[in-house]
Amino acid sequence: MSGTSLDGVDAVLWSPNSGVTAHRFEAFDPALQSQLLRLNQSGPDELHQAALAANAVARAYAQVLRTLLEEAGARPQDVSAAGAHGQTVRHRPELGFTVQLLNAALLAELTGVDIVADLRSRDVAAGGQGAPLVPAFHRAVFGRPDADIAVLNIGGMANLSLLPAQGPTGGFDTGPGNVLLDTWHRHHQGPAFDAGGCWAATGRVLPDLLARWQSEPFFSLPPPRSTGRDLFDWTWLQQQVLRSFSPADVQATLAELTAWSIADALNRAQPATNELIVCGGGAFNLDLLHRLQRHLPQLQVVTSDRRGLPPMQVEATAFAWLAARFTAREPGNLVCVTGAQGPRILGALYPA
Ligand SMILES: Nc1ncnc2c1ncn2[C@@H]1O[C@H](COP(=O)(O)OP(=O)(O)OP(=O)(O)O)[C@@H](O)[C@H]1O
Ligand SMILES: CC(=O)N[C@H]1[C@@H]2OC[C@@H](O2)[C@@H](O)[C@@H]1O[C@H](C)C(=O)O
């Protein structure tokens, strides 16, 4: 799995009986990271650049997979299938497409493992959003019969899964997760992210700027809804004139916008939530978690390691689980989440 933060590739070795037995993360090469970031916007010679990037992503995935297996003492033939998400560079379900760059044939060639890729397209073909896909997995791992649970993934984008004790699973994207925080931080502080949210914590929330950002129409859309860098990116940030503000105050305001958009969406969708389980890299942004808890004083906010799965392993495990669903020829999407015409088997097989 590599997500919209564009930080790199997370891989896990997982089985239904043993759970996660190995995890490996490798950062993208900075040149590839820049190339993928450029491909999120229209640019020169896109087809050529996208084809080269898809090969580079396959090689990055192959490297992580080979290292994961070596460290686990496993062989390619021990793996029934690898769920390979690829790198989202465009997500336009309203136009009938979503693009995750990955040369899956090359990945199969380099690893000798059956690859299940292109996991979103069939849901989009059935009229769905193609995202989020993890709510079904979250229900399987974190759902409880005696409590209304919500699971929040804070990746580049943020998405909620609604797991009522009784009733259907829900889910949707809430908007920006780390993406705006990373983007503003990189512009002012350099390549890494705002570790712990410490920089945001030194700033002061700017009420007028926050109100202007809160008026973004996406935040008022009813589910099913999903988003990406197609909307929340540097251009979106620059809609407001920022040069007169302290950069730390803008970072604090972006953190507040992110926390507000998540809490507002949860309060509208599942106001009786007992516990919010947080995963994804944003689970390490303590400033963001504190802001979130202040918006949601009535419920307990915990990170997913306290519920059996470390925050950085949840997404990759979800795509291993989706590969298992494909192998069993069982549907991977939830119609009540994506709005697709019906349940669909997600993915395409590239045999070893
Ligand atoms: N210690 C930390 N403090 C603050 N933020 C962190 C920390 N560690 C990771 N992050 C944030 O998490 C991001 C990476 O998270 P993650 O890997 O879940 O993103 P992702 O895979 O792109 O997710 P998605 O696919 O859901 O968009 C980093 O870019 C950074 O913003
Ligand atoms: C198109 C795409 O890659 N969407 C991602 C993104 O990152 C978070 C959020 O937006 C979520 O909808 C989705 O990934 C998660 C894993 C999902 O499909 O559930």
UniProtKB/TrEMBL annotation:
Sequence positions that bind ATP: 3-10
Family as reported in the entry's similarity comment: Belongs to the anhydro-N-acetylmuramic acid kinase family.
PANTHER family hit by this protein: ANHYDRO-N-ACETYLMURAMIC ACID KINASE
Pathway: Amino-sugar metabolism; 1,6-anhydro-N-acetylmuramate degradation; Cell wall biogenesis; peptidoglycan recycling
Catalysed reactions, as listed in the record: 1,6-anhydro-N-acetyl-beta-muramate + ATP + H2O = N-acetyl-D-muramate 6-phosphate + ADP + H(+)
Pfam assignment, any one: AnmK
GO process terms (BP): 1,6-anhydro-N-acetyl-beta-muramic acid catabolic process; amino sugar metabolic process; peptidoglycan turnover
NCBIfam families assigned: PRK09585.1-3 (NF007139)
Name the UniProt record assigns to this protein: Anhydro-N-acetylmuramic acid kinase
Superkingdom, taxonomy of origin: Bacteria
HAMAP family: AnhMurNAc_kinase
Coiled coil: none
GO-annotated molecular function: ATP binding; kinase activity; phosphotransferase activity, alcohol group as acceptor
Keywords, comma-separated and alphabetical: ATP-binding, Carbohydrate metabolism, Kinase, Nucleotide-binding, Transferase
Protein species of origin: Inhella gelatinilytica
Its job: Catalyzes the specific phosphorylation of 1,6-anhydro-N-acetylmuramic acid (anhMurNAc) with the simultaneous cleavage of the 1,6-anhydro ring, generating MurNAc-6-P. Is required for the utilization of anhMurNAc either imported from the medium or derived from its own cell wall murein, and thus plays a role in cell wall recycling.
Cross-referenced InterPro entries: Anhydro_N_Ac-Mur_kinase, ATPase_NBD
